[in-house]
């Protein structure tokens, strides 16, 4: 049994050890009672006097135990001497599992027959001379550390302090810390960046609908918690802090959204005297520098793709380029062939596209297809048309309306083979792209669930997406404008297209760029506007916003503002990809639920009348709104 | 004139250069348009083609200029070629001072007669081949960068982006960043600490009267912004993150207090399996490691002083040990001598003490003494009695009541010489200590204002203050208890005094320690309670607090909690001492006024009805409270 418990720590130990190796010899037992941690002793240490501290992982007949800490597990045995043995044994018998214990003793080699090669410390054991129970654990814990994977996420969050002891959470938090430090080392030490802390208590930004507010002693006046240090970093550029970074806490009040947190961390970067290429270079170097050693090497430079190409071929601005199944335009082939749905909306924006699901005929059942059709209708208000490509024929409602020549042409164009499924959509370009992009990812998941190795789990595909439009048609009319910024109002137009801002703003491309990793946006940034006139025109005339609230920025832009640009990396998301976790909650020490609740402490909570008075606010009684 | 402007940058440049030297060669021009910064070119670079970017610091006849960036200044000259010269000259003539300019050219040695030895780049100049005005500065700036010292702090804060260009703010922010990075390097790389980010949106802590609150979508429920990560770091210890640190943003709503900020930064540290000595070792190493090279070396270990001795000798728990003028007990000498004020309160707590101001007779005028007397009355509700020590006599109201023998005895005890002033206070011990401690510092300032070199500005005296009482008599009665924690309720009693908690809590000393530098508390911490029973007893029975709000912590303490302790360093304060600044506002990029206002952006500000509704709060009309 001991062997099996030890084995459950195997993966953890391998990572821990590679971890320590990677980062050189860090003194984990300096300035401490312990002389070594529980993972580091080897046969060559035999004879050494040691003091170890850790959690009681397992005990056997009160004379043998394993002690665990964040670095590993080690076997403890009681001495042969009967008096001593009986004294220590009675101590050990009082200790429940997960109690915290200090052991003083010496290292001894295990007999060859008892060497456990699964355990890094498996060739030695500690003969205890002294044993102290520093904190006895209650007998019944709400969850067992080694059963962490079998309990619900709610239990894990309620008892986070137990969940953190699991090898998985230890690895995640330690890797996160290492990556953050590597990023800082790269920016500060290699490139001369200055880390500047910017305020969290700030002024509400115009249109900042997702900002938390903080009441103050000054009646009716509120701070707001910024969504990013955007304004500050631009002001720092004006202030000659020409290379700024910060691993910054940001706040966003999005209500309940899956895998979002009301507070999150971003690696925030801004530089003067740069263009897009400089930022790309910097970031590619950064990713390489902080990349964990146990993952396959990153290849730079990263490929680039235009926003339009990403939409056309992948149906999304954050394409997962680990696999094909791209969207193919077959408008020219199908239009005019007499099928009603391909003719119904002959606007300039009308398009017919296909996405091929390889071997879909085998792996996608009728009921799966029905679910996909339902979701497609619900999310995009459109339907797809399905073609089962068979050896000699098509199985499809449109099969009989098409000549063999047309079918052949389609097959050649999309590259389909017998056994594949073709998803065909027709309609406005945006809808078709979005729906097929969604279907592409859904089909991929479906294939993988059935064992098809479509995306290599060890593949890390970075991609720059660029050439975004500067403005998008707004869904709501914001203060009279029908345009909104695709990124944010401070993004500069592409060089040479500045004049279009004044004449045809919807045609301007922005100097905005996103860094996508395996279909997830991990960073985004832009070259900023550094001329006051242009910034003012965009705020007032294009976006119809009240620029008076941004007067400090506009003034700064006419006080000698260097050309500048930057980027922000979603650090939680990036680390979760490195850890292979599906949710950012697993790389955050104390996360909140998607409803924003901290289950462990019970935040948020009600506050006293005294507090309400102190901040001059009241909570009106009555039905509880949203 | 150019020479004088350059000279004003002298100190800055020396610091910048030592700075760059200290931190090895950081690439400040990697991934950038510039090939060099404005401070790095030397005679050995002559002939190199360079591109420089910076702010136009000065120009002369439109054919000579100095360009400035964060790293230095350099002289630009236009080429001899007349066509080229006239073209560039007309560009230069359009640029106002503080405009941002890009210059491409080559480095040339200056003629010997024109070498400026005051300027690090003073042996070269750049012959411009191309010159581009990247951002023309408005003609009239609200403040000039080189006049930064002559403008009010209000102007500096209103136009912080200009103030940041000053050599002083550049030095302060860059030094701050360096010290933070060194601290991280020390903890992470040398001692295996893990940096963990803890939440800023948390649950209100019991008795946390200074916590800002944040309304949520959940009606009547609020987050609160924590004053420190105290609870989280203890939970991390329970969770086997045995070496935690964080350079953490903390929040404290103290209303208007001079030199406090509603948000501040602390270096937060916690370790398992340690005692006080371990923390002292760690911190002494940390201070040495991050200590700026241009300051005199730090000597470790730091001296230690008990809380009681600090109060008795310096009248404060954060003594400035750079100078003497300690408080001396003369009760035994003066009691019974027949002077009424020395007899009036014969309680066990009554004390008579003296503090000697050397040469005070010469440097403290009558009006100064009167001001001190007034402040003493106002702040401590007591008076002092003054003795002018003269060659042969005393000038003092008590002189005629005392025998020469008594006077001699007093002089010997306090070590006073002719020309000194003796400040004598009598009354309850706490009052006397506090008043004389205050007078000691006031006298020191007064002497220094008149040129007496009492405290070496290059002296950095660290001191551990320890053996604090665990509980203090509370000024207000909190929920029925007349005791409050001297530090916080999680501090452990001194080993061996645990039993006193249950019998005579007021006699227990705590394992709390403060690190004091030059009379300023720069860090404080403690060994924590790691047994649930003791923690519960203290919360419920000693402090009479509702422990149910801390149930998650109490539960954690019985789930296998290692013995642990930690410390938190006030980072803003520490950096301000290193920079020789009197206020922490000068080491914060975007500080708020002591009223909590951000003058540049206008925070805090009013918010919309929509926002109020969103968070289910109202601001009642009526007179504007506090």
UniProtKB/TrEMBL annotation, chains A, B:
Residues in Aminoacyl-transfer RNA synthetases class-II family profile domain copies: 173-604
InterPro entries on file: Aa-tRNA-synt_II, aa-tRNA-synth_II, aa-tRNA-synth_II/BPL/LPL, Asp-tRNA-ligase_1, Asp-tRNA-ligase_1_N, Asp/Asn-tRNA-synth_IIb, GAD-like_sf, GAD_dom
Coiled coil, from the record: none
Keywords carried by this UniProt record: Aminoacyl-tRNA synthetase, ATP-binding, Ligase, Nucleotide-binding, Protein biosynthesis
Cellular component terms per the entry's GO annotation: mitochondrion
GO molecular function (one): ATP binding
Superkingdom of origin organism: Eukaryota
A Pfam family reported for this protein in Swiss-Prot or TrEMBL: tRNA-synt_2
Biological process annotations from GO: aspartyl-tRNA aminoacylation
PANTHER family: ASPARTATE--TRNA LIGASE, MITOCHONDRIAL (PTHR22594:SF5), ASPARTYL/LYSYL-TRNA SYNTHETASE (PTHR22594)
Similarity comment: family membership: Belongs to the class-II aminoacyl-tRNA synthetase family. Type 1 subfamily.
Stated name of the protein: Aspartate--tRNA ligase, mitochondrial
Species in which this protein is naturally found: Holothuria leucospilota
